Amino acid sequence: MTGRYKAYSEYKEYNSAWFDFLPSHWQSVSLKWTSHLYSGGTPSKDNLSFWENGSIPWLNSGAVNQSLIEKPSAFITRDAFNNSSAKWIPKQSLVMALAGQGKTKGMVAQLAIDSTCNQSMAAIVPSKDISSRFLFWWLTSNYQKIRNMAGGDLRDGLNLELLGSISSPIFDRKEQQKIANFLDHETAKIDTLIAKQEKLIELIQEKRQAVISNAVTKGLNPDVPMKDSGVEWLGEVPEHWDRSRLGFECSVKARLGWKGLKADEYVPEGYIFLATPNIKGSDIDFENVNYITKQRYDESPEIMLQENDLLVTKDGSTTGTTNLVRSLPEPATVNSSIAVIRSRGNIHPEYLYYFFVSTYTQNVIKRMQGGMGVPHLFQADLRWFHILLPSNIEQKSIAKYLDIQTAKCDLIIKKATNAIQLMKERKTALILAAVTGKIDVRDWRPKGIQ
């Protein structure tokens, strides 16, 4: 990182968990001495009038995902403010999530507006000697360390005392602001590049899906005569294709409810027991699995997996997730959330896989589960499912064509994903180098500005 940028001329060592050394003219100080720290409050949700036609901005902990907060989570009334522990936080100040789901805890954002916040957030109002923007970058660079201060249990929250103990550098405010300006500019450039790669991935994924859907519903020859499929949302299909039901062409099996297993029945070694997370990738994950006893494996012979079985999740938010058993390293079975679909010979397994991941099939699955509190696919619904049947030779041709086309798309997606990861790593390293003084950006100017 220091290759493109010069270092400071002199450093001094620190025996600190927050930095090993700093430029010699910088100092280390606890956050509680440089900033006013306080938490907010939530007006009673039982009093609906507190939340109707309010004019006072109010934030919940999820607001920190905005980085720069320009819009509040809600508005509260003056009466709500007076009857709660909510407090005003001036704009330009920082807020940090003390608790929250997923990655929220420890995230920091800057306010573009005056606001209030809930009790799961801390207001960080720097003194006049501290650049809010520099402090934002400092805290951002220490996100994981700050999260770890709460302890190993992910449910544990941060508190004001812990925040106050965070060490941060202090030095001339103008120099702080130069570092902040540098990071604002350089990270914005990186973010733009990341966004372009993310857009590329999105477009390639859409193209990939379109290629699959077109091939399994229209075939590979655009000049063949077409006929009405008889299915409203499918439209026209090649005239020489047949239509059938999945249950006529395949067996559809799943673990019976009374044979469901509990976690305490898993064993260190035994027979592979696949769950939904194991089939979500491009290939089935046979490594990160649970194991069951031979007795439990033997009691459900109808779902003992074979090569070329199609696995489809039938419960929960991932309903419709599909994968194909292309190889079977060891004897395996599935949990009660996965249906096992096995061709009786008329359907090429790879063609059936692509048919199931097509937009047409995934939309039908959504219609089947519509209105349910917890999404679920019944085996009877799957058996009655319409499928298109080209000749076996044509099925193989379609599958081979899609193998080639999807591999091209997947390669582009992989390269873009790797590029994003490298850019994120560069961004993280750049922020840390700047806020700890490993690089000297006092003379930095944006290109074109002298």
UniProtKB/TrEMBL annotation:
Protein name: Restriction endonuclease subunit S
GO biological process: DNA restriction-modification system
Native species: Providencia rettgeri
Keyword Flavoprotein: no
Domain (Type I restriction modification DNA specificity) ranges: 23-200, 270-420
UniProt keyword Nuclease, yes or no: yes
Similarity annotation: Belongs to the type-I restriction system S methylase family.
GO MF assignments: DNA binding; endonuclease activity
Keywords linked to the UniProt accession: DNA-binding, Endonuclease, Hydrolase, Nuclease, Restriction system
Pfam families membership: Methylase_S
UniProt-listed InterPro entries: Restrct_endonuc_typeI_TRD (IPR000055), Restrct_endonuc_typeI_TRD_sf (IPR044946), Type-I_RS_S_subunit (IPR052021)
UniProt-listed CDD domains: RMtype1_S_MmaC7ORF19P_TRD1-CR1_like
